[in-house]
Automatic annotation (TrEMBL):
CDD domains (alphabetical): CYP71-like
Membrane-spanning ranges: 6-26
Tagged with keyword Membrane: yes
Cofactor: heme
Gene Ontology MF terms: heme binding; iron ion binding; monooxygenase activity; oxidoreductase activity, acting on paired donors, with incorporation or reduction of molecular oxygen
A Pfam family it matches: p450
Protein name per Swiss-Prot or TrEMBL: Cytochrome P450
Binding site for heme: C446
InterPro entries: Cyt_P450 (IPR001128), Cyt_P450_CS (IPR017972), Cyt_P450_E_grp-I (IPR002401), Cyt_P450_sf (IPR036396)
Species per Swiss-Prot/TrEMBL record: Ficus carica
Length: 522
């Protein structure tokens, strides 16, 4: 059969028709914006507008560029999803303080539906009694300052094992990224689940895969009414495979806790209980007015294992990369750490409070590289006005903490790594200074702040005390690649390979008092 090509006039009519339809759509979109007092935004085609920008670049960078053009409070459709993007401290305060309760829920997405058992973890649970109870249990059993302090022996033991493994590689290139990850995941597992799972390394790699898959800008999430997309894109099978593999490991963790239950019941001591033991008390049990299914417990295990470890590991990694790139800061912070440890005569975390410059290095790292640059998304629960603009119900709200941390109205030379800016500054992490919100703010602020910070500060202090560091090969420190890899957390794309040079390894000789022995050197 002969194939007949459409004539030029047919093609021309077709393209003219498409052009007219697009034109009408663009005009309609603009009219909607002005008529309904929505915040200004980069209106384009109602469906496809903005997607190419977000998918073609890192979303926190693309959104900052759009905000430069359209202002720090933007309204846009990302796919079908009405979204408000906040890029200034003033509007962040409106969302997370003035109207915090209205924005206290999270939108659902495919990741939270599949991997987090229908958003029944803490981070994606809708605002309400279930979320409040879960958060309270985790605070009491794992994340309060007292509980965090009680995990000190675990941290120090894991730290020493880290220093030992680096010492064994002294003089040759070492994958610091991988080993720091192993450290933070180990501390979280031992503190929250009593021990490392038999499948610890596999569990870490499953979480890593999920983090990349869970940025929240998947086509399926952007076009929720096109349910066929779930069937034809790779997102659903990928997330289901992640869930299946993690599920087996989490079920083993739960089974081990259930099996030890009778022994624990006979014991007088409550100090032996870990988070999973406590969650199991609520397992299918209405006695306390709050009951958890096995799936709910798995969702919490996943939350704690991933949120509790990846964020700290990423922060240590960025801090070391920035220090390598900035030899002046590296020297200054090493001098401080070494002076304090030397003066104290022991290497332990009680000295950290005296290391003001080290703490400023951590703050500066979290300003430039907040592990969750867009925090976690919020959802508008009730029609509300910000700056005389209307935010419709169900709008997804993204707070660009990364852009806010680089706002030149608040930060001098915002792109430069200058920890000095935090010395003698009252700015802290607690969500009261909206120009600096690496842990978020308001009701949904990160509950793991104390747990996370100590897991950044102690490893950093030990790495800086015990070793000097240099880049392998011919790479110049100023050329170190700082490219980011986007996911629900943003880490460096490349693993950090450094050559450790032993400075003082006496901390790895423990004394019987359970503090770390230290021989002062000249
Ligand atoms: C450097 C370390 C950490 C950073 C930078 C960080 C950052 C964040 C951010 C930005 C949020 C979202 C806050 C918001 O929406 O306003 C968050 C939420 C959360 N984080 Fe962290 N986090 C860290 C460590 C931890 C640790 C150690 C844990 C637990 C062991 C943890 C558990 C959580 C949980 C459960 C939520 C959800 C809270 C909710 O929705 O109510 N985080 N974190």
């Amino acid at each position: 059969m002969e194939l007949k090509l459409p004539s030029f006039s047919v093609l021309f009519t077709f393209f003219l028709f498409v052009f007219m339809v697009l034109n009408i759509l663009i005009k309609r979109a603009k009219t909607i914006t002005s008529a309904s007092k929505l915040p200004p935004g980069p209106w384009k085609l109602p469906l496809l507008g903005n997607i190419h920008q977000l998918l073609g670049s890192l979303p926190h960078r693309a959104l900052r560029d759009l905000a430069k053009k359209h202002g720090p409070l933007m309204y846009m459709k990302i796919g079908q999803v009405p979204t408000t993007v906040v890029s200034s401290p003033e509007f962040a305060k409106e969302v997370m303080r003035t109207h915090d309760i209205i924005f206290a829920s999270r939108p659902r997405n495919l990741y939270s539906e599949i991997v987090l058992y229908d958003s029944t973890d803490i981070a994606f649970a809708p605002y309400g009694e279930y979320w409040r109870q879960l958060r309270k249990i985790c605070m009491q059993e794992l994340l309060s300052t007292t509980r965090v302090e009680s995990f000190r022996p675990i941290r120090e033991e894991e730290m020493l094992s880290l220093v030992e493994s680096i010492a064994a590689a002294a003089g040759s290139a070492f994958n610091l990224t991988k080993r720091i990850k192993y450290l933070t995941y180990s501390i979280t597992s031992r503190a929250a689940f009593g021990k490392k799972s038999e499948d610890h390394v596999e569990f870490i790699s499953i979480v890593e895969e999920a983090i990349i898959e869970s940025g929240g800008f998947d086509l399926v999430d952007l076009f929720p009414s096109f349910s066929f997309l779930a069937a034809i894109t790779r997102a659903r099978p990928k997330l289901e495979s992640i869930k299946r593999r993690a599920e087996r490991i989490m079920e083993n963790i739960i089974k081990e806790h259930e099996n030890k239950k009778p022994a624990a019941k006979n014991s007088e001591s409550h100090t032996e209980e870990d988070l999973v033991d406590v969650l199991l008390k609520f397992h299918n049990n209405g006695e306390h007015g709050f009951s958890l299914t096995t799936d709910n417990i798995k969702a919490v295990i996943w939350d704690i294992f991933s949120a509790g470890s990846e964020t700290s590991a990423t922060t240590v990694d960025w801090a070391m990369a920035e220090l390598i790139k900035n030899p002046r800061v590296m020297k200054k912070v090493q001098n401080e750490v070494r002076e304090v440890f030397r003066r104290k005569g022991s290497v332990d975390e009680t000295c950290i409070s005296e290391m003001k410059y080290l703490q400023s290095v951590v703050k500066e790292t979290l300003r430039l590289h907040p592990p969750a640059p867009l925090l976690l998304p919020r959802e508008c629960g009730k029609k509300c006005e910000i700056n005389d603009y209307e935010i419709p119900v169900k709008t997804r709200v993204i707070v660009n903490a990364w852009a806010i941390g680089r706002d030149p109205r608040y930060w001098n030379e915002p792109e430069s790594f200058t920890p000095e800016r935090f010395l003698n500054s009252p700015i802290d992490y607690k969500g009261a200074n909206f120009e600096y919100i690496p842990f978020g703010a308001g009701r949904r602020i990160c509950p793991g702040m104390s747990f996370g910070l100590v897991n950044v500060e102690l490893p950093l202090a030990m790495l800086l005390y015990c070793f000097d560091w240099k880049l392998p090969g011919e790479v110049k420190y100023e050329d170190l690649n700082m490219t980011e890899l986007f996911g629900i957390t943003v880490r460096r794309k490349d693993d950090l390979h450094l050559i450790p040079i032993a400075y003082d390894l006496s901390p790895i000789r423990k004394n019987s008092m359970n503090t770390v022995n230290f021989t002062a050197i000249g």
